[in-house]
């Protein structure tokens, strides 16, 4: 929700530069519900901790005339009596009233709160602004076309410099606004209803640049760019030309940029003190728009009321808070983050590029790093946008730092011997068995080439066997030799039988059959088919019986052989 607090007043306003206060003076040309013709100046306290939506009045004083413009400047006198500075009000009769806000808050009578009356203009005073570099200087401009510079160093006896009045192309009619340059303290700009915008050099006491539109449109307000000293925005309250134009004093032939969004004339304008890319404007089309001057696009828009706003300001103490005064007879405080973002709906949310305001940017930060390092950053100065990064050494445990330095030196050295010694010492210093095993394993990794594998196997509990032939191989060789001898004997017997068959080729075989030995009684000559199948089944089951009764150390021996590489 954008709305924060409000006060039912139809008044021009000004915010205190260094305190949570707001001044409101009865607006000229407007009436309240009672049609009262009286005029007053009031001080409201901006208490954002209170849940009350109504702004409380902490000081009030009657004024002889109504106000066209209010300005609140810092204390330029050096006196503690004016600790909150001065409030200047431009009246419709050409006079300028000076008030002491500290006295108003203390409740002093009107004589004590009213400091001085400055009378030199003829006609309503619409241009009024304090110098931010020299707070005792006050610039004013009125319908007589003159610009006056007032010195409030001695508040009781204010003085002024000779009036500044242009001639020729610098001639101005009714001055509608004056603005001090944000970078060069002796440069002042003024704009008028005849369309001329003049830049004054107070050192030379004369105009140095004059800017005029080709259409000679009626100018209502101007603002210097807070970052670029040669650029300023000029707006018009003419409904036929409501665009905001950015001029660069180095080339005044045509404007640098135009912000188009208002459909009717622009009445007031204010730069954001926390983000120089945000510009706030209000116009007669009942729109209060926040612009991104870098992209030229509309960032967001305040909720519209029954009547348009005629005065807008940024609150410098809380980023994103703005104050707007309207012809509805109300001064409202709003949070710009709660306003409706322009052109962003649920359907096109991803298509619109959102930019976070600068006040969300962290002005300073800190982060821990390795090795006791602490990194921090902060702005170099309050006015500069540059930051500096610092690196700190934060030592909490000296022993940890020494161990880390030792380990880092060993790593950078890259020699296996130093890393091996480091692991060995860590293994000896470790208290737990797991840490000892870990450092011992790392130590083996840094052994000399050719010995690392054997030492790692020893570390894991495997011992390399000596180079000798296994007994299994010898037994197998003996069986193979026996088989070879059996083959030789069989061949020899067959050879002898062949010789005998040749030798006894003439025998009829009677002697052979007579000489055959008699078969034994307990040895069966043939087996039945049932007995043969039973024996075959026992033969087939013998391997399973052998696997079940195998020695379990045989598997361990295979595993160890695979690990140590004895394939």
TrEMBL record:
The UniProt entry's GO CC annotations, sorted and at most eight, read: COPII vesicle coat; endoplasmic reticulum exit site
Q: Where is the composition biased (Acidic residues)?
A: 544-553
* Primary localization: endoplasmic reticulum
Keyword Endoplasmic reticulum on this protein?
yes
Instruction: Pinpoint the residue ranges of every WD repeat in the record.
Output: 118-154, 259-301
Kindly give the SMART domains that the UniProt entry links to this protein.
WD40
One Pfam family matching this protein: WD40
Superkingdom: Eukaryota
Residue ranges for the region (Disordered) are 529-553
SUPFAM superfamilies with a match to the protein in the record: WD40 repeat-like
GO biological process entries: COPII-coated vesicle cargo loading; endoplasmic reticulum organization; protein transport
- Species: Linum tenue
Per UniProt, what is one GO molecular function of this protein?
structural molecule activity
Q: Record's family? A: Belongs to the WD repeat SEC31 family.
The protein's UniProt keywords, in alphabetical order, are: Endoplasmic reticulum, ER-Golgi transport, Protein transport, Repeat, Transport, WD repeat
Q: Where in the cell is it found?
A: Endoplasmic reticulum
The protein's name: Uncharacterized protein
Q: Does the keyword Protein transport apply?
A: yes
